[in-house]
Structures are given as structure tokens and as C-alpha cells.
Specification:
The complex is a heterodimer of chains A (342) and B (338). Chain A has 16 helices and no strands. By secondary structure, chain A is mainly alpha-helical. Chain B has 14 helices and 2 strands. In chain B, helix 3 crosses helix 13, helix 12 crosses helix 13 and helix 12 runs parallel beside helix 14. Chain B starts with 8 loop residues before the first helix and ends with a helix. The chains are: A mainly alpha (342), B mainly alpha (338).
């Protein structure tokens, strides 16, 4: 019988393995479509291009595991970029300006967390509101001007590479943070509590998890890292603008969902999210190399968001049908003792 | 409900008043108009009222569809992109087939909106993807498709017949035709949501989805209908957008989803579902619009608008949550005294 065999197969092939296979396939396809794709210079470019989105996706992954969402990440990026520009223009020393930007990000995240935790509001509604509010504040700070005269030693950090490698410096920072988040999620009690909250919040509360504090920490972390992404974006393009990173929240959400984190909460891994980030980066880069326009890339990203939820739903439905079929077949024939024990 | 013996009938009257979102919105609106007029008498000139009504009409129209969707605890972020596509499509019809009757163009635009809404509905109901994810995706997919199709072109007012443009410019009984259309639809949807079974089902689903299923409501069909309606209304709004502005490019309507959602929630349609009216949502749109003009009249830089809108949305949902909490508290106290 082939049905149980395929079922065993689908159960064994994890989402992460699937992503890794897709990633290898996408890299191979990219190399075939355009030989330049595999050059070190292109990979530097590829990795640098999605580093801000990758950074924001890390805390977002944790937030979605805990069954919340943060749509304000790209607006915090813009706010931090605008603030950095204004502070630099006011001749504030750069280290202090950077610290103030991170602090502003922490405050923005804390405000999200406070509204969600204290008032019990849905994070979707709150972060749609702050998406408008923080982006608006960015415009209030900087208007439609751009500030570009950042010192070269900082912009160098934005677009430079780690010595002797093709890895962009900010991407190395991302790898470091991804490792930290991996340990945090998969090897600490805090990480386990996220799955508990996402799986069943009431049960998590009764098992003694401080849900409010955990959520607050998540949104503050999201704010700080989004602000960091804003600083990197500003240095990478040597330009502080209020509309920097508009729409990046879609790509961040796309990466998290494609990474196997479900919107129903309680599921997903950091490795999956990192793989899906690489996959999205590779697809975007390969398509750009063969002259696919930005508009089409937007359509691709939007479709990825939808398909990354549609596909698991479809698989789950198919599995359920197979199970029902198997049960019917089983009840038609007298049950064997080994079957009953399972 | 108000049987409890009260020491002060005046206070109770006030409480009834304040518990009705529509009345508190009207009071707020009146206060705002009075203050702004006192500061700048031109605020109440015929021209500025007409501008205000034109500005609010399309947003108010879109709040109807959004209200129906939010009543069921869903959300439709894709409306602004549907408006963009259908606005440009309506213009293209006039460019390619001059002399097409206005009614046909509006009909085709609504049909296109219906189809796009149908895509949302299919993904949400059959694909079982949460509405937030679906419409966040289609917000960008539709806009991307629009950019790819428009390809830098632009529809100019000169390409549009004056009969069509007059929807956005002429006035009947002192009120723009555009506003009349929206008012008519508001009355229609107010009645059907209030008096008819189909309308009540939206509230039932939002109040308690499980109870709605047990009560025999076909939840899937209702949710699908909601997104179809939202799409169709956005299609109508697209045609009216063209009539109002005449000039349309690929960016038409970008970002108005935030404005519509804010207006709807400020108007008393709770984001948690089951509460609110389309009339309230339209009043919310009017209030937000008056607020915006007040800022303009008070010479506040336009950069403040978006920040202000986001803040209003936060205040409105926090207020809703507070009121719901107090209501629940009061019910519990009452029950414990029986």
C-alpha cells in the first residue's frame, strides 16, 4: 500500500528540509539563468540587500510563535532612520545618536507592548495604528528632506564586507543575532514559554508563565532590532529619509510565514526563518538579474505570503482526508491487534 | 436595561447619550466645527464645505465595506489597491472606447472589484488563510499588478467625458452628486444590516463565531459575501475616484486603507467584531476628515496627518476596549446583587 508510505514520507520531510531543498534549487536555477549570479560580488550584494528585513524577521518570528503580530516594524525602521538624520544634523556625536535611535526603538516597541498587554488589545489593530503613527512621526521629524552627509567610517559599516570574505558587515551582525535567537528560542525556558503561549495561552498562564512580561519583552526587542535595521539602512545608502523601508513589513511577514511559523501560533523554528530569508533573497536577486521589474517582485513577495500559508493548510487537509480514508478501510476489515495498539 | 433606581435622572440621561457612539461623535464634530470656525470663519464657507464633503465621500463609501468585514472580526487591507486598479481601468475604458455610457463604466468597475474581492474571499474561506495575511498579500499583489499594467502611463481629465466628471463636480440641493450616491448606499446598508436576517448574521458571527455556527448560520458564505461586498464597493469607489480627481496614475488610492480602517474604528465598529453601525463608521470618516481640515486651517504641517491618524486609531481601539471592560464589569456587579 503506497498511502501509508507517502504519509510516512511527508511526515518525515520537515518544512526546514523542504526549504533547504528549494534554496539549493533556487541557487542552481539562478546560476543557470545568469552565470554572474554565483560570483562573490553578487553574493555580497544579495546578502546586503535583505539584511534589514532579515534583522526584523528575527524578533517577528518569536512574536508570531507567541501568536501575536507586529506590523509596525518597517515604520520603526523609518522613524529610527529619520531620527538618526535629525540628530546627526544637530551635530550630536554619532555613538550617542545611535544609542538614542535604539532607545527610541525600544520606546516604540514598549508602546506597542503596553497597549497590547495593559489594555488587552489585539496586536494586529495596535500595530496597524502604530504603523501609521511611527511612520507619521518620522515625517514630522524629517519632512520630505534627505540627510546624506554621514561620516565615511559609519557608512563603510553599512556597505563594507568582513575582511577576507564576501560577507557584508551587517550580514555578519545578522548571523550573530540569528545564533543568539536560535539559542534563546530552542535552548532556554523563555523559548519554551513562547511555544506554550502560542499553543494555549490559558494553559500557559496556569503553568505559571508571566505572559504579559514575555510579550512586553518581545515587542521591546522587536522595536530595538527594527531601530537597528533603520540605522543599518541609513548607513548602507548613506541617506536618512522618513520613507526609508516603506512596505518592508510585508517581506518580514513573508519570511516568517514561509519559514514555517504558523499564524495560529506555537509552531516554527529560527532555522526555518533563516532559510526562508535566504530563499527570498536568492529569488529576488535572481529575478533582478534577469531584468524582472520591481513591480513583479512585489507580486512575488505577496504571493509567497499567501502560498506559505495556503500550502501547509492544503497538506493538512490532504492528510486529514487520507486519515479518514484509512480509518474507513480499517473499519471495513476486522481490526488487527497491532493496529489497535498504535 | 435602565430599570435600576437612580438618584439622578440627569446623570442617567447623560450616560445614555455618551453610550451612543453616534451621538458622542456628533457632539465632538459640532465642537470641532465651532472651534475651527471661531478661529477661521472661512471654515464654514460653501466652497470649503463642498470640498470637505467630496473628500469624505469616497472614504465614507469604503467604510461601508470595511464595517461589514470588521463586524465579522475580519479585516480587508486590500481595498486601497482595488480602488487603484479600478480607477485606472475605468479611465482606460474611456480612453479606448470614447462614448461608453457612465453606467456601463461604473458597472464594469464594480464587477472588477467584485472579482478581486472574490479572490480574497476564496483564499480566506477555501484556503483558510487568515484575512489579515490574505489581504496584506493582495494589497501588494494588486498594487504590483497595477504598476506593471499602468507602466508609468496616466489618465488625464481631458480623456474623461464631462458627464462622468460631473459626478464629482456638480451639486444637487447644495450637496455634491458623489455625496448623494454615498448617502443613498449608507441608508440602504444601514437598513439591511439592521432589519434583515443577512445583516444580523454579520453581527452574530462577530459576537461569537461558534454560537453563530450552532445557530445554523452559514459562516463561510457570510464571510465570503462580506469580502465580495467590500471588493465591489471598492470597485465603485475606484470609478468615483476617477470622477472626483480626473487624473489617475498607478499610485491612486495608495495608503487609504489606513484612513478607512481608522474611520471605521473611530466610528464605533469594534475591531473585536459584533459591534457598530455603518452610519457610525461614516460619521467616523466625517470626523476624521474635519479633523484633517482643521489641522490644515490651523496651519499644522501636513506631515502631522499620518501620525495623527495612527494615534486616533490607537485611541479609538483603547476606548472601545475600556468601554467593553466597564460594560462587562457593570453586568457582573448587577448580577451579583440579584
Amino acid at each position: 500500500m503506497s498511502a501509508p508510505a507517502t504519509r510516512r514520507l511527508t511526515r518525515r520531510v520537515s518544512w526546514e528540509t523542504l526549504l533547504a531543498i528549494l534554496l539549493v534549487a533556487a541557487i542552481a536555477a539562478g546560476g543557470i539563468l545568469n552565470p554572474d549570479f554565483l560570483s562573490a560580488a553578487n553574493w555580497t550584494n544579495l546578502l546586503a540587500n535583505f539584511v534589514e528585513i532579515a534583522l526584523m524577521a528575527l524578533p517577528l518570528c518569536l512574536i508570531v510563535i507567541a501568536k501575536e503580530i507586529d506590523l509596525s516594524v518597517a515604520s520603526i525602521l523609518g522613524l529610527s532612520s529619520a531620527l538618526l538624520g535629525v540628530l546627526w544634523q544637530a551635530r550630536v556625536p554619532m555613538p550617542i545618536a545611535i544609542l538614542l535611535c535604539l532607545l527610541a526603538g525600544a520606546l516604540a516597541g514598549a508602546m506597542n507592548g503596553y497597549l497590547i498587554v495593559r489594555f488587552g488589545l489585539p496586536s494586529l489593530a495596535v500595530t496597524i495604528g502604530t504603523l501609521g503613527l511611527y511612520r507619521g512621526l518620522a515625517f514630522v521629524l524629517l519632512g520630505d528632506q534627505a540627510i546624506a552627509d554621514f561620516p565615511p567610517e559609519y557608512t563603510e559599516f553599512g556597505y563594507g564586507v568582513v575582511p577576507f570574505t564576501f560577507l557584508p558587515t551587517p550580514f555578519a551582525l545578522f548571523l550573530l543575532l540569528a545564533a543568539v535567537f536560535w539559542v534563546l528560542v530552542h535552548h532556554t525556558a523563555f523559548g519554551r514559554s513562547l511555544y506554550a503561549i502560542g499553543g494555549n495561552q490559558t494553559a500557559a498562564r496556569f503553568s505559571g508563565i508571566n505572559i504579559n512580561r514575555t510579550k512586553m519583552q518581545l515587542f521591546v526587542a522587536s522595536g530595538i532590532i527594527s531601530a537597528l535595521a533603520g540605522i543599518i539602512f541609513t548607513f548602507r545608502f548613506a541617506s536618512a529619509r522618513a520613507d526609508n523601508g516603506t512596505g518592508f513589513e510585508l517581506s518580514a511577514v513573508a519570511a516568517v510565514l514561509l519559514g514555517g511559523v504558523t499564524v495560529q501560533g506555537g509552531k516554527g523554528t529560527v532555522v526555518g526563518v533563516v532559510l526562508s530569508l535566504l530563499l527570498i533573497g536568492v529569488i529576488n536577486n535572481a529575478l533582478t538579474l534577469v531584468d524582472v521589474s520591481n513591480e513583479i517582485l512585489t507580486i512575488v513577495t505577496g504571493s509567497l505570503v499567501i502560498f506559505s500559508v495556503l500550502l501547509p493548510n492544503f497538506i493538512a487537509t490532504a492528510r486529514e482526508k487520507l486519515r479518514v480514508l484509512a480509518r474507513q478501510r480499517q473499519s471495513a476489515t476486522p481490526p488487527s491487534p497491532s493496529r489497535q495498539s498504535s | 436595561m435602565m430599570k435600576e433606581t437612580t438618584d439622578n435622572s440627569g446623570a442617567q440621561w447623560l450616560r445614555v447619550l455618551l453610550n451612543s457612539r453616534e451621538i458622542s461623535l456628533l457632539i465632538l464634530l459640532a465642537a470641532l466645527v465651532l472651534i475651527t470656525t471661531a478661529l477661521n470663519p472661512r471654515f464654514l464657507s460653501a466652497q470649503s464645505i463642498k470640498d470637505l464633503l467630496l473628500n469624505v465621500s469616497i472614504i465614507a463609501l469604503l467604510t461601508i465595506g470595511q464595517s461589514i468585514v470588521i463586524l465579522m472580526r475580519q479585516i480587508d487591507l486590500s481595498i486601497s489597491s482595488i480602488v487603484g486598479i479600478t480607477a485606472f481601468m475605468s479611465g482606460t475604458i474611456f480612453v479606448n472606447h470614447p462614448g461608453t455610457p457612465t453606467v456601463v463604466v461604473i458597472g464594469v468597475s464594480m464587477l472588477a472589484g467584485l472579482l478581486l474581492g472574490g479572490l480574497n474571499a476564496a483564499l480566506i474561506v477555501w484556503g483558510r488563510i487568515p484575512a489579515l495575511i490574505t489581504t496584506l498579500g493582495t494589497l501588494y499583489i494588486f498594487r504590483g499588478a497595477n504598476y506593471a499594467w499602468v507602466h508609468g502611463r496616466q489618465i488625464n481629465a481631458a480623456d474623461i467625458p464631462s458627464t462622468f466628471l460631473s459626478i464629482g463636480t456638480s451639486v444637487f440641493l447644495g450637496i455634491p452628486i458623489l455625496t448623494w450616491i454615498v448617502l443613498l448606499l449608507l441608508v440602504f446598508f444601514s437598513i439591511s444590516l439592521r432589519q434583515y436576517r443577512g445583516g444580523r448574521e454579520y453581527y452574530a458571527i462577530g459576537s461569537n463565531p461558534n454560537a453563530a455556527i450552532l445557530a445554523g448560520i452559514n459562516v463561510n458564505r457570510r464571510v465570503a459575501t462580506g469580502f465580495l461586498l467590500s471588493g465591489m464597493i471598492a470597485g465603485l469607489a475606484g470609478a468615483l475616484w476617477l470622477a472626483r480627481f480626473g487624473t489617475v496614475d498607478a499610485t491612486a488610492g495608495t495608503g487609504i486603507e489606513l484612513q478607512v480602517i481608522t474611520s471605521t474604528v473611530v466610528g464605533g465598529v469594534a475591531i473585536t467584531g459584533g459591534v457598530g453601525t455603518v452610519a457610525g463608521a461614516a460619521l467616523g470618516a466625517l470626523l476624521m476628515s474635519v479633523f484633517s481640515s482643521t489641522l490644515v486651517f490651523l496651519r499644522v504641517p501636513s506631515f502631522w496627518q499620518q501620525a495623527f491618524q495612527g494615534a486616533m486609531l490607537l485611541v479609538a481601539i483603547a476606548l472601545d476596549a475600556y468601554m467593553a471592560h466597564r460594560h462587562a464589569e457593570r453586568l457582573r456587579v448587577k448580577r451579583s446583587h440579584v
